[in-house]
Structure formats: structure tokens, C-alpha cells
């Protein structure tokens, strides 16, 4: 009855368990380092030595990396050419949309680029789109990866709206906005008479070609709708070999992005003039986007980027902090502590990290673990 | 310096006042409403020669009992007549209109489980929020995550909780079934006295039930008859109120006659509606044309056991869920921890942040759409129209689009309110509870009881306590009265030695008293040699008085040895028990008690003493007496009581020396903290006796003013008493109580003692447990009217102010301030005064006064007053209160306080049942609060803040990205990573840290109780810290988002790769932040922190290995570039630098006490420092 009463006379939660515990509780708890929360443990404390060394080490690591990456970045040569405005015939600058939508107007356009510095092969050819939201929610979702991979799943067009099926219900392969809006400007490069062929092989990820885009999946009903979004695909070539599509379908993270167009395996000399014969097909005029052609060499760090700047800032800051803390820890001059009090103390006096009774700033270079610093030993009255 | 301080009230500290005498009613019993005026023993019907009284004969008995008292019964009738709420029960006729006796503690049945359980679970607001988000996500326009993915977390949580609830309910069902199917003998309908077995669940109100000895009562019943001809039954109420002693209940003589003759059914019983009061009952019974009034002593309650009575018959008046035990079983009110309440404030702030972010995103999205509305049709990445249908696809105009974006934003940013936090908190508390239970310092060897967490949601409150309200008996003291010394006829015998105890030979059995008392060898020798000498005879009388002058019932218990039996003295007063055991140890063994006589084994010679009369203890006389017919045909009066009371009735002239000596001894005893009693005796002459007998009978049968008459009869006979001696009984303090109280006081916890004891007893206990010291100024509030209460409160307040002012003037220097602040005040309030103070406007005065005092003692308080005092503090301050007690009378205060602790001692389990935590000893409070409470608080506080911070970091990273997606709430991070972030990527380390990390060692925390202050001051959880954490989240999210953004701005980076970086980087950053704040790295914490980062990477690998997801292969691709690794490094360093700088600076230049103590642990020898501390503390 006793144990039952334990069960019934509190209706609260877990009473049955409590009753059970009452029955079992006659055992001495087993003693172990674990149950007594006495597991051997390391108790790091941020001593001045540690603080200064951590800052110093971080700084010492960062500065060389910054130097190395500086050296690497110096080698990168980039040629950037914005052509979307320049390629519009002068009579149509007021109505670019009509220009791009009119199929009868030739879209061919010739650009001359001057090489600013020697460029070693391979030279990467990118196109850069600006203000093009490949990460727009509508756009990102509008694809079906099962269909791309597997020929038998051609009918799987879910999530592909509004580019799902043809008017008579035939599934579009590859379906969805992303594929539909495939970039279709083309570039041909010549240096004088020399044709700089663009190698368009292996511009996409190997993993995509092999596993994501089927070898037996062929485009069908593609770009047959009322509105053409971009490039057409050769229905004879399987998706796994449509590398431009594969590159395009790796949607870019940011609204300004580059995509690899191909590689040129020629070394370019300083002051070389390269003639680009391009087809300005892609409609960026409808949303005010920009198009650029980029030729760039690459290093082990990739292309040009802001990385080394950060490295320098952070590395330098850490070294500075190391010195600042060293000064703080060892400085005992009155002037300095007054200065510190005036600036830092007042800022931190509101911070709650310390106990409620306002501790005065402890002496610089205080002795660690000195019990005289305990609040009740400093003000013996306590609270 | 102490002696110079004036005493406000002239009290002699240290020595308890002479009238500190235990009453026949123990403190616990004195809290009961006054019992009916029926004397426990019907001495009126006993004469010298009557051996077995005939219960049916005496005609004069008619008038006995309150039923015959016209004034009383008419009052009662009036009250009940106007009371429509009473219920009528026909004895012997089961009535279907009242609740049956089946009980049901289970919450659910198979059918109701799902809806009810879901309903219960969704009473948590957070779950409703969670559900709303999930439902929102099911709308196709708004869906952010896949449908399955979004339902999963909620479903999982609900399922786990449901399984746990189902299991608990299954156990309840099982125990209900067992209980309901127990058998009881019930009077068969239409028969006279034929009892048939019936299952408990079929018993109905009106059934007549027969219960045998040691059986449990199936329902609340009014006793009709018992095996005892006088209608006495003994019950043990341990399951009800936790008191282990036997309680006496009576059947009314009218029914006793009728039912013991099997007269069958009849009579109508009117009783009050079912209520929770286990000490109150009012009813009347109409039988044979008479109206008999019934009170609490006539009812036996479900769950009690019948003891020492062969059988008892009763009529069921309350059954099943209406029984008092079930009505009292509603369980402790659910409490919420203070941190959890505070956390709501931050949740509201976060909700505003959430709404702000959602509004920003949706408004910007609307602006973007407005700016681009002409371009939407031909823009490749938007393409408004679906040309196969010719309609707009998923575009509903700018206004609607803003609304939809808002809803989607809510779904995407929902994690900023960390739902998983609630689950993490539960898990952390579970872990903390495990470690508290496993702590060997909280294990009570003597009662073999572990620490138990009964409420799992207020662990962290233990670290913020400012007030401790403690019961005295059984909590501070062991409630084990032990006879220590005696002064007999002016000679002090206090050198007790352990003896083997004394046994009595009865037939071929050996009866041994259950408890042996240390006996003084000199006294034993004196007793053995008692011949014809006068003095040894008086010594014998002394022990006879101890054995006879009480209401103890000896119970003979079997032991494993068939030859051995144990005598267990049961009685309502532990003092009397102690005295009976003491007498037994000296060879005067009370062996048997029946209604008319007692049998005492006097040094091997069994003698029968007739109990001719008994004058109960009352607070005016402060003594009790019995009239005993001795075997040698003399009649003696034995009296025992408080010294002041007994010395007043001695014949001073003849025994002045003895009185003087006894007084000296009494002073000595009470200064040792012993409870003292004086015993006296008087031999009555035949004429005196007859005169008394007549008066006694008249008084007992008097219609009007019986109590006063009886009192005057007693006063008449209790005079010219010979002092036999005095006794000293130790109310043993539990181990380590003074030290515990000292530690609590060091920790700035105010300890209040609330006791049912008298003022003097309370004060003497206050001294012995070091709560009161001689340096303290005592303020006593002890008044009998509201006006005088007010006066003394105002006076006391004025004096307090004066004292404070005086002390502050004399001391300008900061050094001296330490001394003056020790002008400590002690407030002693009496329960009588509390009646006029609590729940009136005087409460505020009391509160002001009490907060000025460092010690408060409340004496003679009723259970509800205890709760009232707790409420006094709880309602007026934000300070956390803790109540600790062991008895049923502490339940109200345990439930009222923020934290209720039950001592699982000997007084049953009622307090434990109502408590949030239970443990074996008062002194465990110190490790519980100072160590576990401190740890729990700082762990939980850190965990909550950390959870806010880590989720905010993640959500902000998501938010920054939305600014670059035309505000369309795309997440670069895959939806699986978004969902797993809170569940898997970051939650486990914080749970483990919340369970295992310790800021300081146990030894340090115990050595420096002041370290407890961080919890009291909310140092570890407050708005400032929250803001700080949010700022860190802001900075870190900026670092995590913008460093990759600037690096990859003009590159071929794809969304999935960058998304993986944005998923991995915050996980590493928040785990690094945790790692920086972890104080104690053991291998488990190492495993979880680094393991989580590894597990996150593995998860990213797995997610990016799924072909159908767009991000296939991305993580492998990006991890193949050196840039990724350097970037990760720089993100982590940039994100952590501010936290590191801040930490390094504050820890060194503005260290908290905890920080210094940590350093002491590491660099200084704590124990050594501690040793040098003690004298310092002693001075201050």
C-alpha cells in the first residue's frame, strides 16, 4: 500500500516513476569519478601569458599566409570587357529590348581587347552577369533533378513551373526556368590571324557530368514554348555532354556571378590585341543586367580576390592586440591606468560579466588567484 | 562588543525558560483542531473492582458526548440546517448518487489518449508556435522547406513525449487496477451481520464495511462499532499525513451497541460535502430517533490501516475520488523556474526581432517587385507567366506577394526563437537530476535515502535562493526524543552508560523495549536495592510515574526470533514515548494497556494498575495527571508538567531543599538545550478519592461547561504534590545543522524557522542550532490583539531604525563598517500574533521588520500560517524562497515556496509527496544549494543565453543572404542543414556542457559560501548579458557571411558550395565560442564539442552525396580548394577575436569572484587559504 499511495497521492507528472524510484532508492549511489562529477579535466585559464601568445601566434600565422597569397594574387591577370551596351547598334540604344527581341537583326558584335600583362595558359574565359538573380527563389526551385539524371523519369516535371510541359502536355526535358534561361552568347577569339580556339571541354564539374546529368537523357520539347528564354540544345547530344547547360545549372550564389565559358591554351603577351567576335543573344536588357567577358589566369588560390586584404587586417590586428595586452598587463604607471580607467573602465562598467558589486578595476598585473581580490575580502562588510 | 549591545526585550539567551515543558500533545498534534471532548479513556466507568466494564449498562452514560449537549447540537443543527451542501447517507443502503469507490489516477484511456495527450502537450505555447510554423509551411505558396522535412522535428518531439506519457499512464492504470480489485468485507444487503467480500471498486457510499486488524481502509468511513467494547479503534495514518504513531478513533456508543449486536442497518447520516481537510469532519447521525453528532474522531479515512483493534465496522461516507486522501492527491502545483520565466522576456524581444526581420524582408521584397514590375514578364529568372496556361504563375500582385514573403520569412527565421531550447533544458535538467541523485554527499546513510528530484523543472532555482523557511521538528531536529538525565529527589543522575537494555519475561517469551536508553548505573543499583528505605521507594515512584502518567499504548511486535518480542510504545507525544522507554530501561516496563488498567512490569514483577482518572494536558494548567489504583490498594495521583506549573502545587514548606536542588538541575538541563519536565506524586486518602470520584463523574457528565468543570476538578486534586524529580529529554538536532545554517548565512541566505513549538522551545532550538547568538538583539512580537500587534510592530520598526542610525554614525571609515553591519536583529513572532498580522494591512509592517532582521523565528504557527509567511516574502520581493520540512503540516509551505524540499525522515511521505526535491538530512541543503544549485544555475543560465546566441547567429547569416536574393528568402544552406542546425549541429555540446561543466570545485564552493551570490544577483542571466550575446551573434554572423561574400563576389561560386561554407562556418564559430567558455574540459566534453563539428562535416558530406539534391558534390568541390580552408580559418579567427578580447580583459582586469576562485583553484592551494580565512571570518 505504501508504494501505491506513493503512486496515487500525487497526480502530478512522473509520479509513477517517482514511486518506482522510492522503491529503489535504498541503494547507496555508486561512487565513481563520473557520478561525482570528478572526471579528470583540464581547466584552462586565460592568463596574460596565454592571451598574449594566442594573439601573437595568430598574427604570426596570418601574416605569412597574407604574404604568400599576395605573391599569388600578383600573378593573376584579368581582362574584363563589358559589352552589353556597346554591342547595341547606335540607332537602337533607346530601345534595347526591341533590338534583342528582333530575331532578324544580326547580334554579331566585335570587340578588341588589349592584353595588359603577359598571361600564361590556360586562360579562363568567363562570362559575367550582373543583376541576374540566379538565386531567386522562383528560379532556384524551378528544376527537377530526377528528370535530368534518369531517362525513365522524363515525365517527372514537378517543381518545374512555369516551364513544365508544352501546350499539349508533353514534358519538357530539361524542364524548369533554369534550363530554359540558358545563356546563349558565344565568343570567338582571334589574335591577328591566329585563331585562339576556346576549349569547352571539362568546364563543368566531373561529378555533375557523371552522376547528375544522365548519359541517356536527351533534350526534348526544349525551347518550344511561346517565349524563348535562351539557348537551344541539340536534341542529339545527351545532357551529360551539354556542358554549358551543366555549368549554367549550377546556380550562382550571388546576383553578380561568373560562369566558365571555356579555356584558351595560348600564352598571351603584353599589348597583344585580341579580337572577340561575339553573338550578343542573351537578353539582359529586360531587367537591366550587365554582361561582361572576362579573360583571366588563375593561381592556386583561384582568381583575383579580396582575401589577402582580410588576412593582413586580421593578422595585423592580432599582433597589435598582443602588444596592447602586453602593455596592459605590465604597465604600472599611474598615467596609463588612469587612461585605461577613463576609457575602458567606463565602457565596461556596465557589463554584467562581473559580479553585481561594482569591482574597481583590478591593479594591472594582479597576482592570479589572490584571495584578497574576492569582493567580500575587498569590502569586508559584504553586501 | 556583543555584551554592550542592548537587548530590546529582556530574555535570557542561551537558557531556555523554565516552563519549556513538552506537552502530552506533540507539536504536530497540537496543530490538529481540538479533539472532541471525549476523554481517551473512559475512566468514569471504572471503579476499583470492576475488571471488565460492561459497555451497555451504565445508565448515566447517556449524557456523555457532545451529542447530548443541547447547546452544541442545536448549534450544529442550525448550521447544518442552513447548509444545503450536506449529503445524506442511509446506513447500509448503498447509494448510487455519489461517486463509487473506484479510483482513477490514470489520465488517459485507449480512446482518449491521442486527443488528450496532444491537447496536454500543446498547452505549451512553444509547441503551438512550432505547429503554426509547420502548418504554414504546408501551404504551397509559402512552403519553404519540403513538407516532410518540416513536420519531422515536431512529430519527433510529440512522439517521444507521448511515449513517455503513455508509459507513465500505463503504470498508473496498473496500480489503479490493483487498488480497485482489492477485496473488503461488506455487509450483504438485507442481512443482519453477514459480510461478504466485495471488490473495492464496487463499494458505494452507504455500504457497511468490516475491516480487520492491519487491513487498509477502502474508503472514508464513519466508525459504527469496533471489537473494543468501548468503541475504540486505533489507526495508523502514515499514508495520509505521514505520522507513524497510532491515532485513536471512536465509534459512538449508540452505534457501538447496535452494531456489535448485529442489529443491522438503519439510521441516516448527514455529513458535509467531500473536502480536502483531513483533520476536520462534521456530521450527525439519526438513529433510533436520536441525533448523534459526529466529529473528526469518529471517521477513519481511506489509506489508513487499522491497528491494534481486532475489527471495526463503519459506514462509507465518501468513496473513491471523493475520499480525503484522493482529494489531497492533486499533486504539487507545477512550478516554473525563475530562469524560465525570465527567458520569456528574452523570447518576447526575439519575437520582435523576428517580426522586424520578416517585415524588413517583405517590405524590401515589395519594393523590389514594384521597381521591377514592368520587367517581370521577360526577366529570365522570374518569368511571370506560364505560357502553357497563359496565366500568371505563382504571382499574386505586389501586396499579396509582400504578405506571402512575410509568412515565408517567419518560417525561414523561426529558429531565432529556439524551440529546441525547451527540449535541451529538459534534457539538461534530467542530467543534472541524475548527478544530484548520484552525489554521495546527498546520500543519507541512516535512512538509506538518496536525493530525489521530484519536480524536474526547477533545478536551476536552487542556485538563486535568498530565503530558507525551515520546519523545526524532524527537519532541524531528528524528532527523536531521547531521555538524557533525571534529577530524582534532588539528586542528579546524568551519567548514563550504554546498557544492554532491559527485557521482561512473559511466559516463555522475552519482551524487549524497542529502544534502550543509557541508564545511570548508580540509579540502577539504587533501584535494585530498594528495600524498605524511603528514598529508593520514591525513586521507584518516579519511574512508576513515568510509566503510568501518559497515554502510551504498548504494542508487542514479533521479531524474527520466535522467543523475542519487541515492545513498541505508540503515542501521540514523542516526549511521553521517550519517558516510557526510559522507565523501561530502568526496569519499570509498561507492558499492556487496556481501557481500564495498565500492566507494568516492576523489576520483574508484573503488577496491575487501575487507571481511575485522567486529567488531560491543557495550556492553562501546563500539566497532566492520572489517578492510579495501585496493587497495594492505595490510590495515587501522578502528575507531570512544566516546572513552573508543578512547583506551584508542591507543598513547598516540607521539601524546600529538594525543590531548590531540582530547580538548579532544571536550569542546568535547559541550558544544555534539553526539554524538561517535572514529575510529582500524591497519595490520596480514601475520602479524598471518593470526593474526587464524585466530582469527576459529575463533571464528565455535566451538560454545560464540562471543560471548565473538569479543569477545576483537576486543579482541586492536583495540589500538595511531592516532587519526585525532573527529566531532561533531548530533542536531538540532526547532524551538522548548526554548521549548515552558518554556511547558509555566509551565503547571504536568510534562514527562517517556522515551528509549531512554543516560543521558549523555539528560541532554545534557535540557540542550539546557532541561528541565534548572544550578540543578537531580539525583537519579540507576542500579542493577543490587532492593536497591540500594530503597536509592537511600529515600536520595533522605530527601534530598528534607531539602531541602524546609531551604528552608522559611529563608523565613517570603511573598515569599521564591517563591524557595525553585524548589528544583527532577530525577530521572534508568535503564531497568535500572526493571526492578526497575516492577511491584514499589518503584513507590510511585518515584512519591513522581517527584512531588517537577519534571523526570524516564528513559533506556534499553523500549517496555513507557514504558507502565509512564505507568501509574505514571495509576493513582495523577487527573491527566491525555499521551504524545507518533513511533516504533513509543512505541505502548504512546501507548495507555496518557489522551491519545496521534503525531508524523507520518519514522519512519513506527505511532505516528500508535495515537495520538489526530497532528501534525508537538513544539512544536505548546503551542498544542494551551494554546490549543485550554483552549478545548475550557472549551467542553465549559460545554456539559455548560448542557445539564443547560436540560433541568432545562424538566422542572421540567413538574413544577410536574403538581401542578395531579391529578397525572396532563398537559403543557400540546404533545407536539411537549416533544420539540422538546431537539432544536431549545435545542440548536443550545449546539453553536455549544461550537464557536466563546472565553474568551480565542490570544495571551493563549500569553502566560500559567498560565491553563491552570483545566482542571487542574477549575474549569469540578465538583459545585459542577453544584449551582449546578441551583439556577438551580430558580429559573428557578419563575419561568417561577409568574408565569403567579398572573397567569392566575382567568382564562379555556386549556391550549394557557398551554402555549405555558410552552414559549416557558423557551426564551427558557435562551437568555438562554447569551447572558449567551457571551464572544465573532460573527455566527454572534448568528444562532444569536436565530435559535433566532425558530425556536421559528415552530415554535409552525406547531404551533398544525394544525387537528386541540387547541391550534389558541392562540399567535396569546395573543400578541394585551398581558399576554402584559409577562408574558414579567417572566419573563425575574425569571429572570435572580440569575444576573446572581451574575455581576456574582463577576466584579468575586472574579475568576478568566481574567476578569482577559479584561479585560486588552479594556482593557489585552496585549502590552505581557506584555513587562514576562518579566523578572519570569525572576527567579522
UniProtKB/TrEMBL annotation, chain A:
A cellular component annotation (GO) from this entry: Golgi apparatus
Localization annotation: Membrane
Record keywords: Membrane, Transmembrane, Transmembrane helix
Annotated segments matching region Disordered: 1-22
UniProt name for this protein: ALA-interacting subunit
Main location, first listed in the record: membrane
Membrane-traversing stretches: 50-73, 307-330
Protein family: Belongs to the CDC50/LEM3 family.
PANTHER family cross-referenced by the UniProt entry: ALA-INTERACTING SUBUNIT (PTHR10926:SF30), CELL CYCLE CONTROL PROTEIN 50 (PTHR10926)
Pfam families hit by this protein: CDC50 (PF03381)
TrEMBL record, chain B:
Record key words, sorted: ATP-binding, Magnesium, Membrane, Metal-binding, Nucleotide-binding, Translocase, Transmembrane, Transmembrane helix
GO biological process: phospholipid translocation
One function term, GO molecular function aspect: magnesium ion binding
Active-site residues, record numbering mapped to chain: 471
Domain P-type ATPase N-terminal residue range list: 95-148
Gene Ontology cellular component list: plasma membrane
Binding site for Mg(2+): 471, 473, 886, 890
Compositional bias of kind Low complexity: 28-40
Chain spans, region Disordered: 1-94
Biased composition (Basic and acidic residues): 76-87
Transmembrane segments: 348-370, 402-423, 911-931, 952-973, 979-996, 1025-1047, 1059-1076, 1083-1103, 1123-1142
Name listed for the protein in its UniProt record: Phospholipid-transporting ATPase
Amino acid at each position: 500500500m505504501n508504494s501505491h499511495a506513493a503512486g496515487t497521492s500525487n497526480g502530478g507528472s512522473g509520479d509513477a516513476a517517482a514511486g518506482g524510484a522510492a522503491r529503489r532508492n535504498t541503494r547507496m549511489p555508486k561512487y565513481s569519478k563520473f557520478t561525482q562529477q570528478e572526471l579528470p579535466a583540464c581547466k584552462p585559464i586565460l592568463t596574460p601569458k596565454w592571451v598574449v601568445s594566442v594573439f601573437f601566434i595568430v598574427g604570426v600565422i596570418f601574416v605569412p599566409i597574407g604574404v604568400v597569397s599576395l605573391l599569388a594574387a600578383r600573378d593573376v591577370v584579368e581582362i574584363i570587357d563589358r559589352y552589353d551596351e556597346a554591342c547595341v547598334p547606335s540607332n537602337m540604344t533607346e530601345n534595347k529590348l526591341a533590338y534583342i527581341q528582333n530575331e532578324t537583326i544580326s547580334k554579331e558584335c566585335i570587340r578588341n581587347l588589349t592584353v595588359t600583362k603577359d598571361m600564361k595558359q590556360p586562360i579562363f574565359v568567363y562570362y559575367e552577369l550582373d543583376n541576374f538573380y540566379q538565386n531567386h527563389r522562383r528560379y532556384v526551385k524551378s528544376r527537377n533533378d530526377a528528370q535530368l539524371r534518369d531517362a525513365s523519369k522524363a515525365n517527372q516535371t514537378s517543381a518545374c513551373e512555369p516551364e513544365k510541359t508544352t501546350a499539349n502536355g508533353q514534358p519538357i526535358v530539361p524542364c524548369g526556368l533554369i534550363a530554359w534561361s540558358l545563356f546563349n552568347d558565344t565568343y570567338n577569339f582571334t589574335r591577328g590571324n591566329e585563331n585562339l580556339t576556346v576549349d569547352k571541354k571539362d568546364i563543368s564539374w566531373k561529378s555533375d557530368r557523371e552522376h547528375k546529368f544522365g548519359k541517356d537523357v536527351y533534350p526534348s520539347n526544349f525551347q518550344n514554348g511561346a517565349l524563348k528564354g535562351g539557348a537551344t540544345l541539340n536534341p542529339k547530344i545527351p545532357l551529360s555532354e551539354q556542358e554549358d547547360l551543366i555549368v549554367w545549372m549550377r546556380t550562382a550564389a550571388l546576383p553578380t556571378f561568373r560562369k566558365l565559358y571555356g579555356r584558351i591554351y595560348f600564352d598571351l603577351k603584353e599589348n597583344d590585341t585580341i579580337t572577340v567576335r561575339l553573338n550578343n543573344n542573351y537578353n539582359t536588357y529586360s531587367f537591366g543586367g550587365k554582361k561582361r567577358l572576362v579573360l583571366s589566369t588563375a593561381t592556386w588560390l583561384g582568381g583575383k580576390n579580396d582575401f589577402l586584404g582580410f588576412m593582413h587586417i586580421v593578422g595585423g590586428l592580432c599582433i597589435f592586440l598582443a602588444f596592447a595586452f602586453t602593455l596592459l598587463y605590465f604597465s604600472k604607471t599611474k598615467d596609463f591606468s588612469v587612461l585605461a580607467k577613463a576609457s575602458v573602465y567606463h565602457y565596461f562598467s556596465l557589463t554584467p560579466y562581473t559580479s553585481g558589486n561594482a569591482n574597481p578595476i583590478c591593479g594591472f598585473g594582479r597576482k592570479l588567484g589572490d584571495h584578497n581580490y574576492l569582493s567580500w575580502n575587498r569590502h569586508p562588510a559584504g553586501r | 562588543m556583543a555584551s554592550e549591545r542592548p537587548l530590546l526585550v529582556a530574555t535570557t539567551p542561551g537558557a531556555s525558560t523554565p516552563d519549556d515543558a513538552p506537552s502530552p500533545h506533540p507539536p504536530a498534534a497540537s496543530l490538529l483542531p481540538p479533539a472532541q471532548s471525549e476523554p481517551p479513556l473512559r475512566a468514569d466507568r471504572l471503579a476499583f473492582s470492576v475488571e471488565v466494564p460492561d459497555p451497555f449498562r451504565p445508565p448515566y452514560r447517556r449524557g456523555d458526548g457532545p451529542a447530548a449537549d443541547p447547546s452544541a447540537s442545536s448549534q450544529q443543527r442550525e448550521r447544518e440546517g442552513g447548509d444545503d451542501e450536506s449529503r445524506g447517507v442511509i446506513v447500509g443502503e448503498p447509494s448510487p448518487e455519489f461517486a463509487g469507490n473506484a479510483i482513477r489516477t490514470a489520465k488517459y484511456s485507449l480512446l482518449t489518449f491521442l486527443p488528450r495527450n496532444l491537447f496536454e502537450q500543446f498547452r505549451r505555447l512553444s509547441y503551438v508556435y512550432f505547429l503554426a510554423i509547420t502548418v504554414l509551411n504546408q501551404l504551397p505558396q509559402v512552403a519553404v522547406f519540403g513538407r516532410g522535412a518540416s513536420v519531422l522535428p515536431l512529430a519527433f518531439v510529440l512522439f517521444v513525449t507521448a511515449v513517455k506519457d503513455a508509459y507513465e499512464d500505463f503504470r498508473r492504470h496498473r496500480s489503479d487496477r490493483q487498488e480497485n480489485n482489492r477485496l473488503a468485507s461488506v455487509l450483504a444487503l438485507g442481512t443482519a451481520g453477514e459480510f461478504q467480500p466485495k471488490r473495492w471498486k464496487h463499494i458505494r457510499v452507504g455500504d457497511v464495511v468490516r475491516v480487520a486488524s492491519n487491513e487498509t481502509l477502502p474508503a472514508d468511513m464513519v466508525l459504527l462499532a469496533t471489537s473494543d467494547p468501548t468503541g475504540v479503534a486505533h489507526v495508523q495514518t502514515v499514508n495520509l499525513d505521514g505520522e507513524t504513531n497510532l491515532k485513536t478513533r471512536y465509534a459512538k456508543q449508540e452505534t457501538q451497541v447496535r452494531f456489535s449486536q448485529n442489529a443491522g442497518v438503519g439510521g441516516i447520516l448527514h455529513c458535509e460535502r467531500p473536502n480536502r481537510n483531513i483533520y476536520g469532519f462534521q456530521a450527525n447521525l439519526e438513529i433510533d430517533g436520536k441525533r448523534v453528532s459526529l466529529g473528526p474522531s469518529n471517521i477513519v479515512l481511506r489509506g489508513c490501516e487499522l491497528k491494534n483493534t481486532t475489527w471495526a465496522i463503519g459506514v462509507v461516507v465518501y468513496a473513491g475520488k471523493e475520499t480525503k486522501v484522493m482529494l489531497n492527491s492533486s499533486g504539487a502545483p507545477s512550478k516554473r523556474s525563475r530562469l524560465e520565466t525570465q527567458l520569456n522576456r528574452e523570447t518576447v524581444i526575439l519575437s520582435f526581432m523576428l517580426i522586424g526581420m520578416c517585415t524588413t524582408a517583405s517590405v524590401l521584397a515589395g519594393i523590389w517587385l514594384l521597381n521591377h514590375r514592368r520587367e517581370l514578364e521577360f526577366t529570365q529568372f522570374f518569368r511571370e507567366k506560364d505560357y502553357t496556361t497563359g496565366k500568371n504563375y505563382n504571382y499574386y500582385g505586389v501586396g499579396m506577394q509582400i504578405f506571402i514573403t512575410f509568412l515565408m520569412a517567419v518560417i525561414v527565421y523561426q529558429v531565432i526563437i529556439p524551440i529546441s531550447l525547451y527540449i535541451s533544458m529538459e534534457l539538461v535538467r534530467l542530467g543534472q537530476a541524475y548527478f544530484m541523485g548520484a552525489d554521495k554527499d546527498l546520500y543519507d546513510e541512516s535512512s538509506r535515502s538518496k536525493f530525489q528530484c521530484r519536480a524536474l523543472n526547477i533545478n536551476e532555482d536552487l542556485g538563486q535562493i535568498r530565503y530558507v523557511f525551515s520546519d523545526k521538528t524532524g527537519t532541524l531536529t531528528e524528532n527523536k526524543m531521547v531521555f538524557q538525565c533525571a534529577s530524582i529527589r534532588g539528586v542528579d543522575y546524568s551519567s548514563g552508560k550504554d546498557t544492554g537494555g532491559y527485557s521482561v519475561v512473559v511466559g516463555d517469551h522475552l519482551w524487549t523495549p524497542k529502544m534502550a536508553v543509557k541508564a545511570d548505573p548508580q540509579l540502577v543499583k539504587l533501584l535494585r536495592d530498594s528495600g524498605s528505605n524511603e528514598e529508593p521507594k520514591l525513586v521507584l515512584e518516579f519511574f512508576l510515574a513515568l510509566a503510568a502518567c501518559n497515554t502510551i499504548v504498548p504494542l508487542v511486535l514479533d521479531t524474527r526470533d520466535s522467543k523475542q518480542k519487541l515492545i513498541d510504545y505508540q503515542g501521540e507525544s514523542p516526549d511521553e514515548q521517550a519517558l516510557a522507554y526510559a522507565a523501561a530501561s530502568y526496569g519499570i516496563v509498561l507492558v499492556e494497556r487496556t481501557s481500564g488498567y495498565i500492566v507494568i512490569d516492576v523489576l520483574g514483577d508484573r503488577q496491575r494498575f487501575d487507571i481511575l482518572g485522567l486529567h488531560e494536558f491543557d495550556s492553562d494548567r501546563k500539566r497532566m495527571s492520572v489517578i492510579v489504583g495501585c496493587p497495594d490498594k492505595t490510590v495515587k495521583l501522578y502528575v507531570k508538567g512544566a516546572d513552573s506549573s508543578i512547583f506551584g502545587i508542591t507543598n513547598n514548606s516540607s521539601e524546600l531543599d529538594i525543590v531548590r536542588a531540582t530547580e538548579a538541575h532544571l536550569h542546568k538541563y535547559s541550558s544544555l538545550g534539553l526539554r524538561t519536565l517535572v514529575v510529582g506524586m500524591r497519595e490520596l486518602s480514601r475520602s479524598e478519592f471518593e470526593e474526587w470520584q464524585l466530582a469527576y463523574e459529575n463533571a464528565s457528565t455535566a451538560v454545560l461547561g464540562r471543560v471548565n468543570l473538569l479543569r477545576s476538578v483537576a486543579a482541586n486534586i492536583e495540589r500538595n504534590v511531592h516532587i519526585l524529580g525532573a527529566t531532561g529529554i533531548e530533542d536531538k538536532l540532526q547532524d551538522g545543522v548548526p554548521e549548515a545554517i552558518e554556511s547558509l548565512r555566509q551565503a547571504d541566505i536568510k534562514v527562517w524557522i517556522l515551528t509549531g513549538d512554543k516560543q521558549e522551545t523555539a528560541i532554545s532550538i534557535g540557540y542550539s542550532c546557532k541561528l541565534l547568538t548572544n550578540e543578537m538583539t531580539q525583537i519579540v512580537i507576542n500579542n493577543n490583539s490587532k492593536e497591540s500587534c500594530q503597536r509592537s510592530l511600529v515600536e520595533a520598526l522605530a527601534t530598528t531604525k534607531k539602531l541602524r542610525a546609531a551604528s552608522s554614525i559611529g563608523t565613517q571609515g570603511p573598515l569599521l563598517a564591517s563591524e557595525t553591519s553585524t548589528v544583527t536583529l532577530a525577530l521572534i513572532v508568535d503564531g497568535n500574533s500572526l493571526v492578526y498580522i497575516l492577511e491584514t494591512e499589518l503584513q507590510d509592517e511585518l515584512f519591513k521588520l522581517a527584512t531588517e532582521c537577519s534571523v526570524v523565528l516564528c513559533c506556534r504557527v499553523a500549517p496555513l500560517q507557514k504558507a502565509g509567511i512564505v507568501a509574505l516574502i514571495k509576493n513582495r520581493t523577487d527573491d527566491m524562497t525555499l521551504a524545507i520540512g518533513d511533516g504533513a503540516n509543512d505541505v502548504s509551505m512546501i507548495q507555496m515556496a518557489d522551491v519545496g524540499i521534503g525531508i524523507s525522515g520518519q514522519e512519513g511521505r506527505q511532505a516528500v509527496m508535495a515537495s520538489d526535491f526530497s532528501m534525508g538530512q537538513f544539512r544536505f541543503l548546503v551542498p544542494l544549494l551551494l554546490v549543485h544549485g550554483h552549478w545548475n544555475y550557472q549551467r542553465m543560465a549559460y545554456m539559455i543565453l548560448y542557445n539564443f546566441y547560436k540560433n541568432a547567429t545562424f538566422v542572421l547569416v540567413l538574413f544577410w543572404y536574403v538581401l542578395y536574393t531579391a529578397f525572396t528568402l532563398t537559403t543557400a544552406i540546404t533545407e536539411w542543414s537549416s533544420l539540422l542546425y538546431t537539432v544536431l549541429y549545435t545542440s548536443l555540446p550545449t546539453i553536455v556542457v549544461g550537464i557536466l561543466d563546472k565553474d568551480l570545485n565542490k570544495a571551493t564552493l563549500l569553502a566560500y559560501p559567498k560565491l553563491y551570490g552570483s545566482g542571487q544577483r542574477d549575474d549569469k542571466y540578465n538583459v545585459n548579458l542577453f544584449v551582449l550575446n546578441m551583439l556577438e551573434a551580430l558580429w559573428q554572423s557578419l563575419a561568417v557571411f561577409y568574408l565569403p561574400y567579398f572573397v567569392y563576389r566575382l567568382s564562379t561560386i555556386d549556391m550549394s558550395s557557398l551554402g555549405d561554407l555558410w552552414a559549416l562556418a557558423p557551426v564551427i564559430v558557435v562551437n568555438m565560442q562554447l569551447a572558449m567558455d567551457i571551464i572544465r574540459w573532460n573527455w566527454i566534453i572534448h568528444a562532444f564539442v569536436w565530435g559535433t563539428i566532425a558530425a556536421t562535416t559528415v552530415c554535409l558530406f552525406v547531404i551533398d552525396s544525394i544525387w537528386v539534391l541540387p547541391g550534389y558534390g558541392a562540399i567535396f568541390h569546395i573543400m578541394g580548394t585551398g581558399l576554402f580552408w584559409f577562408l574558414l580559418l579567417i572566419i573563425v579567427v575574425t569571429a572570435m577575436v572580440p569575444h576573446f578580447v572581451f574575455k581576456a580583459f574582463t577576466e584579468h582586469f575586472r574579475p568576478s569572484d568566481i574567476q578569482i576562485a577559479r584561479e585560486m583553484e588552479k594556482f593557489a592551494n585552496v585549502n590552505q587559504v581557506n584555513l587562514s580565512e576562518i579566523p578572519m571570518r570569525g572576527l567579522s
